[in-house]
Structure formats: C-alpha cells, structure tokens
Write a structure and sequence with these properties.
About 30% of the residues lie in helices and about 35% in strands. The protein has about 190 residues and is α/β, with parallel strands linked by helices. The chain binds guanosine-5'-monophosphate (5GP). The site of guanosine-5'-monophosphate (5GP) has 20 residues, from strand 2, strand 7 and helix 4.
C-alpha cells in the first residue's frame, strides 16, 4: 500500500534494527484518513470471504480494525489485557509475550462475543515474532470459530512471525512489508 509506505518513510522513526516507532500516525497520534484507506484495503483483500467478526488486541490494533470493520460491515472485538483475572465473565484467555515491553501478559475475550459460527479476520498493527497473532488465534480457536486470515498493517519480514503464520497455513495480508531497519533507514520488501 503505497500511501502507507510513504507515511512510514516520512514519519516513521527507526529506534533500533528491531523496532520502528510510528507514534505520529498509528500508535499514539492517529491519522484517520490513512486509517480509512487501511480499512478499505483490508476489506478489499478479504472481500467475499464470509467474515462475520474482526478480532484485534488493545490498544494499537483498534484503529485499523475498526476501519476494516466499518468497510466490511462487521463488529470488531478487541482482546483486553488483564493484570489479574478476577472477572466473573465467561472468558477465553491466552498468554501473550509483548515484543515491545518484553513481558508476558494475559489477554481475554468475553465468550458472549465470539462463537463457533463466526468466521474471523484477525487484525493487528505490527507483525514481529507472531506472539500477539498466535494468542489471538488461540482465543478464536477456544470459541470454535474459524479464521479467514490475518491482516497486518506493518510486517517486519526479517522477524519470525510471517514465516510461522505461513507455516501454520494462515493467509497473511500485510499492507507494508519491511525487509530491514538498518542505518536508521526503512527498507521495504516489495
Ligand atoms: P509480535 O507479537 O508479532 O512479536 O509483535 C507484535 C506486537 O508487538 C504488536 O501488537 C505491536 O504492538 C508490537 N510491536 C512489534 N514490533 C513493533 C515495532 O517495531 N514497533 C511498534 N511500535 N510496535 C511493535
């Protein structure tokens, strides 16, 4: 997606060879017009797949997921991060290792929002080593729902997530694929 790549080149900050900061348009300040284009592009790529729900993870997956949900006309569920699980709700629960915080947290979705009849599109802001995506897949499988694919705004293709999800047989659609973050520069795969 050319507009996204341009925005990354213009406003992305290479923090290290592993981490790209996109606080100017995705992770803190949000560019609504770009999010709308992102939602449109996800909807175009997953059109006609019978998607009934979108699942993402708080907080940074929510903006692109909502825009895709608006385009596809389906509800968006964001998995919530919990410090402690003293909730009374019936929950699907998974552990996720955070790439940016380097800590493990627990995420959950209320069972009332997801069921075996759902066909789900997973959306997230970044794909690095695939921990967030695999935890979301775990929650969806606990509900007995099926998975249409995984939509990622920014894939860092030099990390292991893409290959792992491909290996598990999931369709992964990434709107920008980064091959390297070297010398403070972003290089794209395609
Ligand atoms: P994974 O679980 O695939 O290892 O990492 C994906 C998650 O970590 C995303 O939900 C995203 O929030 C965060 N993340 C991974 N890499 C980056 C990065 O380079 N920059 C930012 N801002 N977040 C990242």
């Amino acid at each position: 997606m050319e507009a996204l790549k341009q925005k990354i080149r213009q406003d992305g900050i290479v923090l290290s060879e592993q981490v790209l900061k996109v606080d100017a348009f995705l992770n803190h300040q949000i560019d609504p017009a770009l999010m709308q284009q992102i939602g449109h592009e996800f909807a175009r790529r997953f059109a006609g797949q019978g998607i009934s729900k979108i699942v993402t993870i708080e907080a940074s997956g929510i903006a692109p997921a909502i825009m895709a949900g608006l385009e596809l006309g389906v509800p968006v569920i964001f998995a919530r991060k919990y410090q402690s699980l003293t909730l009374k709700d019936d929950l699907y629960i998974a552990k996720v290792f955070s790439f940016t915080k380097q800590t493990e947290s627990t995420i959950a979705i209320s069972a009332k929002h997801l069921s075996a009849s759902d066909h789900v599109l997973v959306i997230d802001d970044f794909l690095a080593n695939g921990h967030a995506a695999k935890a979301l897949i775990d929650l969806i499988q606990q509900a007995g729902a099926s998975i249409a694919g995984i939509g990622v705004v920014i894939e860092k293709s030099f990390q292991s997530g893409r290959a792992e999800l491909d290996g598990l047989g999931y369709r992964v659609e990434s709107l920008a694929r980064i091959s390297a973050l070297t010398h403070g520069q972003v290089s794209f795969l395609e």
